[in-house]
Amino acid sequence: MMAYGFSQLVIFSASFVCIFIIQSYPTTVAAASTGGSWALLRSTIGISAMHMQLLPSDRVLIFDRTDFGASNISLPEGICREDPHDYVLKKDCTAHSVEYDVVSNSVRPLMVLTDVWCSSGALMPDGSFVQTGGFNDGDHVVRVYNSSCSNCDWEEIDSGLVNRRWYATNHILPDGRQIVIGGRRQFNYEFYPKTPASEKSYSLPFLVQTNDPNIENNLYPFVFLHTDGNLFIFANNRSVLFNYSRNKVLKTFPEIPGGEPRNYPSTGSAVLLPLRVVQGNVAVVEVLVCGGAPKGAFVNAQNGTFDGALNSCGRINISDPDPKWVMEIMPFRRVMGDMVLLPNGDVLIINGGSNGTGGWEYGRNPVLNPVVYRPYNPIDARFDVQNPSVIPRMYHSTAILLRDGRVLVGGSNPHVYYNFTNVVYPTELSLEAFSPSYLDPNLSGLRPKIISPVSQSKILYGEQIVVRFTVQTQIDVNLISVTMIAPSFNTHSFSMNQRLLVLDSGKATKTLEKLTYEVNTTTPSAGHIAPPGYYMLFVVHQEIASEGIWVVVS
Ligand SMILES: *[C@@H]1O[C@H](CO)[C@@H](O)[C@H](O)[C@H]1NC(C)=O
Ligand SMILES: *[C@@H]1O[C@H](CO)[C@@H](O)[C@H](O)[C@H]1NC(C)=O
Ligand SMILES: *[C@@H]1O[C@H](CO)[C@@H](O)[C@H](O)[C@H]1NC(C)=O
Ligand SMILES: *[C@@H]1O[C@H](CO)[C@@H](O)[C@H](O)[C@H]1NC(C)=O
Ligand SMILES: *[C@@H]1O[C@H](CO)[C@@H](O)[C@H](O)[C@H]1NC(C)=O
Ligand SMILES: *[C@@H]1O[C@H](CO)[C@@H](O)[C@H](O)[C@H]1NC(C)=O
Ligand SMILES: *[C@@H]1O[C@H](CO)[C@@H](O)[C@H](O)[C@H]1NC(C)=O
Ligand SMILES: *[C@@H]1O[C@H](CO)[C@@H](O)[C@H](O)[C@H]1NC(C)=O
Ligand SMILES: *[C@@H]1O[C@H](CO)[C@@H](O)[C@H](O)[C@H]1NC(C)=O
Ligand SMILES: *[C@@H]1O[C@H](CO)[C@@H](O)[C@H](O)[C@H]1NC(C)=O
C-alpha cells in the first residue's frame, strides 16, 4: 500500500497545514565555521534548479517540471507549449529548462515538451546529455541535448524507454552506454542507447527486496561503477555488487549499521570516494553514505511531526573481501544534503535540513552551513564546518562542481504555481556559488595554473601525458597531484555518474622557465577505471586546486 500519492499530493493539494506556517524557522547554528565563501550569482534564473548538469561547454543544463504553472522566464517570442496532459496550464509560454552560461552568468530558455520532473540522466561520451524519463507524459521519453552548439535545444524521443522511469538512477558504463536503474514501481533496469543484444528491460529483485511496502525508501538508488567493472547499488539500508551483463548479484554487503533508510524519500546522499590509480589499478574503492531521515519520518511529517534527520555517515571499503561499515558522526543532522566531490579529493556536504524528510513541504530547519569531509584525515578530524549561506536549500535543491572549482547551488522546495508567499519555504529561483577555501584569494600565490594540455584535449587510455603548469611561488614538487572528475548529473540529493580519479603521476619537476613545472601523468588504463567521455582535469598543490581543463578520454 502506498502511504502517499505523489501526483495528488504535489499537484493538487495546496491545503497542507504547513503551508500556512509563517517563515520563522530556526536554523542550525555552526559551532565554528572555518572556511568557504558564498556569492549570489543571480536572484533569478526563471526556474527552480531541481536538476543540474555541467556540460563541456561550461554551460549548465537546468530544468524543473513542466506541469506546475508559469515560470519566471518566457520561451522565445511566440513559442508556447500546448500539452493536454498538463495539470495546471494546457498552454504554457514559459520555459521549464534553461541553459546557464557560467562565464557570462546568463541564462537562455529551452523548450522541454514533456515532463522532466524527477528524471535521471548522464553526459554521454560524445558530450551530449541524455536524460531519461520523468512524470506523466514524460515517463517513457529520452531527451538528448547536444552540447556542441551554442543555440541547440532538447530533442525528444517519445518511446525511448521500455519502462516508465521516475526516480531512477543512471550511470555511464565502461562501453559508453548508460544504464537506467529502477524508478518508482520499476524493479528492473535497461540501457540507453539500445542495442540488439540489450533492447528490453531486465529484472532486479534487489529493488523488490529493498522496497518497503509502506514507503518506498529505495528510490534514486545510489549507484557507482566499481573499478572491477561491476555496479555497487545501495537502496534503502542495503547494498549489493551487481554484474549487469549477467544480471547477477555477486555479493551482498552488510546492512548499514542502524538499518535506517538512506534513499528517497529518506534522502541521504552518497559519494564514491576518490580512486587512487597506481600502475593502472585501483586498490581501494570506498563509498560514503551520509544523512537521511529515520524510519517513519515520512509518515510522521505527513502528520506534522518533523523527526530529527540522521547525523551519521557510513563508510565501506567495497574492494575489501570482507567489508565492514565504519560509522562517523557529522556535525549536523542532515536530510536532503548533496555530497559533491571537490577537485582536491575532499567531499562537500551541502544543502538540506535537519528535520523532516524528502518530499514537498516535509523538511524543516535548513542546515545553512556546508561541511567539508576530508576522507584521509584521522577519523576524528574529518568534518570541517563551513561558512553559511543565507538561503535555505530544502527539497529539490541541487549542487554541482564547476570547472573553476566553485560549487553551483540552486533550487529549493518549489510550489505549484511557483508560489513565493504563504508557503513554508518559498519557491527559490536564485543561483549561488559556494567557493571552497582553496579559492580564497589569499591562497592565489600557491594555486597552480595549467598551461598544457589545452582544454578540450583528447587523451587515450593508458597514455602518458605531460601536464605543465605555473605556480607563483617556489613549490615543494612532492606536493603535486593530478585529479580527474566526471561531471555528474545532480537531482534529489544524489549526483549520478560520479568519479574522481587521482592519477598516477611522477614527481613534478621544474622546467627551464621561471615558476613553470611539469608532471608526467598516466591516463586511466580502461573503461572500467574511467568510462569514456569528458572529465575535468585539475592540478592540486597542497589541497589547492587549479582551475580545471576539459579532457576527453577515449
Ligand atoms: C519574473 O519576475 C520578475 C520579478 O518579479 C518580474 O518582473 C518578471 O515579469 C517575471 N518574468 C516572467 C517572465 O514571469
Ligand atoms: C551537435 O551540434 C554540432 C554543432 O552544431 C554538430 O556539428 C553536430 O553534428 C551535432 N551532433 C549531433 C549528434 O547532432
Ligand atoms: C559479468 O558477467 C559476464 C558474463 O559472465 C562476464 O563476461 C563479465 O566479465 C562480468 N563482468 C564483470 C565486470 O565481472
Ligand atoms: C532495513 O530495511 C528493511 C526494509 O525497510 C527493514 O525491514 C529492516 O528492519 C531494516 N533494518 C533495520 C536493522 O532496521
Ligand atoms: C496521524 O495522525 C492521525 C490523527 O492524529 C492518527 O489517527 C494517525 O494514526 C496518525 N498516523 C500515523 C501514521 O501516525
Ligand atoms: C528536530 O529534531 C530534533 C531532534 O530530534 C528535535 O529535538 C526538534 O524538536 C525537531 N524540531 C522540529 C521543528 O520538529
Ligand atoms: C580496502 O580493501 C583493500 C583490499 O582488501 C585493502 O588493500 C585496503 O587496505 C583497504 N582499505 C581501507 C581503507 O580499508
Ligand atoms: C499559489 O498561487 C496561486 C496562483 O497565484 C494561488 O491561487 C494560490 O492560492 C497560491 N497558493 C498559496 C498557498 O498561496
Ligand atoms: C585566508 O583568509 C581567510 C579569511 O578570508 C582566513 O580565514 C585564512 O586563515 C587565510 N589563510 C591564509 C593562508 O592566510
Ligand atoms: C615525462 O616523460 C617524457 C617522455 O616519456 C620525458 O621526456 C620527460 O622527461 C618526463 N618528464 C618528467 C617531469 O618526468
TrEMBL record:
Note the coiled coil stretches, chain numbering. Answer: none
Q: Does the keyword Nucleotidyltransferase apply?
A: no
Task: Show the Pfam families listed in the entry.
Answer: Glyoxal_oxid_N, GO-like_E_set
A GO cellular component annotated for this chain's UniProt record is: extracellular space
Q: Which residues form the Galactose oxidase-like Early set domain?
A: 447-553
Gene Ontology molecular function, alphabetical: oxidoreductase activity
Listed InterPro entries? Gal_Oxase/kelch_b-propeller, Gal_Oxidase_central_sf, Glyoxal_oxidase_N, GO-like_E_set, Ig-like_fold, Ig_E-set
Q: Which CDD domains does this entry report, sorted A to Z?
A: E_set_GO_C
Does Methyltransferase count among this protein's keywords?
no
**Ranges for the Glyoxal oxidase N-terminal domain?**
50-438
Q: What is this protein called?
A: Aldehyde oxidase GLOX
